[in-house]
Amino acid sequence: MTESTIRIEHQKMCDVLYKLFLKYKFTEKKALLMANEYTESTLVGVNSHGINRVPLFIEYVEKGIVKIDAEAEKKETFGSIERWDGNSGPGIINATKCTNRAVELAKKYGIGMVTLRNTNHWMRGGTYGRQAADSDCISIFFTNTQPNMPPWGGKNSRIGNNPLIVSIPRKEGHVVLDMSISQFAFGKINDYKLRGKKLPYPGGWDENDTLSDDPEKILSNERGLPIGYWKGSALSIILDMLATLLSAGDSTYKISLNEYETGISQIYLCIYPDVFNDKNLQERLINEIINYTHDVEPMNLGDKIYYPGERSAATRNKNMKEGIPVDKSIWKKIMELSA
After folding, report:
1. Among this protein's residues, is 49 annotated catalytic?
2. pLDDT tens per residue, range 63-91
3. Catalytic: which of 10, 49, 174, 294?
4. pTM of the model as a whole
């Protein structure tokens, strides 16, 4: 917590956002779903893709980039694979619908995939990984984005930070990997900027082509650093290729031709592990890996080793009790929008 931060009770945030989305003519069902998702993302500590993104989302609604009455529709079926079109609807609504459909296909065929084109930002991708895990499915989801990283060795941004989500259901707490292919998601970089803090590690290049930990310098030209340097650059390109080819949608190149980030392509792949009829074995194997990973001496005294999704679950519990930390300027903007 800092002087620029306040804590907002979970239900209050949800109620305020629900009222805001109703004001902008979303149906009660859609307003509630989006309010819950934005609040949940903020609750687990991902303000960058939760409450902080709401003003920008409303701007997209006002400009007509997000079509409030539109949602994803199935266009083609190939057995356990389907192609859908998002019709420029709200990213959260489209992503929730496509996740549910991928789960249905997986439970019917063992594996199911929904590809989605012409949609908008899904906000926090881990939301849908957890949604699939709650339905007892393994998931592999990813999306392309506007160009915000240079391909390795290049000066100008030509590739996206294309978030990748992998989730595994588990009784003692789902495993949920949610990572962008940039060292820091740009929403996260902006979060550091709002708090007046430097990044803990270099996150992109400044105007002098020098790696920097200054969020303002990185945001000024949107040249993020790929994870693993050249390896992250290659992974970003491959994910963009797969999302574009499988959905028959727009690539990062085509998205770059838009004034705003819209018309993105996404993949929702689910696997139903119950088809193997060895659930107890699966739990034992996952716990074996987690226990082995936990059982290591930390480099720094007092540190703890986490599996993917464990830290966010702990943050969620803490914020449910103490209230959700929110930047004062962001909350003021939300209140003004909802008035």
Report:
1. yes
2. 999 999 999 999 999 999 999 999 999 99
3. 49
4. 0.95
